[in-house]
Design a protein that fits this description.
Strand order of the largest sheet: 1-2
Order of helices and strands: HEEEHEHHHHH
Number of strands: 4
Strand content: 5-15%
Distance between the termini: 22 Å
Number of domains: 1
Helix content: 25-40%
Oligomer: single chain
Low-confidence stretches: 101-151
Length: 151
């Protein structure tokens, strides 16, 4: 089964401002050296998943536009309470979160999104030097370390 590319994962974490995308949450996605956030599919990854669309290709399922970063609690909620979290609602949550212009507290690592997503910068701009540790298991057995390698 396909997975999001390294560049997509780096871009997701850079654009989320280190915060769960859910509007009622302020949980950081990286605490100390540990990645505690999860990469969530807006349109489900596989048959039986919340909001699964059989007409989408694997590439579309794992594209930046179909992914959102959330804390473990809200990932579980959006996939369990499907009637409350439509594709349209999640796209709006995602859009709002990515347009956040405020840096909140000390929970946001000191790096710029452009550096993380710039292919001309070694290691995508040094995310490995900013974030270290092991990634927790995400739903669908996707771990950040599996996608990006050791960080």
């Amino acid at each position: 089964m396909a997975r999001p590319s390294d560049a997509t994962i780096k871009r997701l974490f850079a654009m989320c401002h280190n915060l769960c995308a859910h509007r009622d949450c302020g949980q950081p996605l990286v605490e100390g050296g540990t990645i505690v956030g999860e990469v969530c599919h807006i349109k489900g990854e596989k048959p039986g998943a919340a909001r699964y669309d059989p007409d989408r290709t694997d590439a579309e399922r794992h594209a930046f536009e179909n992914l959102i970063c959330m804390c473990r609690k809200h990932h579980k909620i959006i996939d369990t309470e499907k009637e409350n979290y439509s594709v349209e609602r999640l796209l709006e949550i995602n859009r709002r979160g990515r347009n956040l212009n405020l840096v909140i507290g000390d929970s946001v690592p000191d790096f710029r999104a452009a550096e993380l997503t710039n292919p001309s910068v070694p290691n995508g701009g040094g995310i490995g030097s900013q974030i270290s540790g092991r990634a927790p298991r995400c739903r669908g057995s996707l771990r950040l370390a599996d996608v990006c390698g050791p960080i």
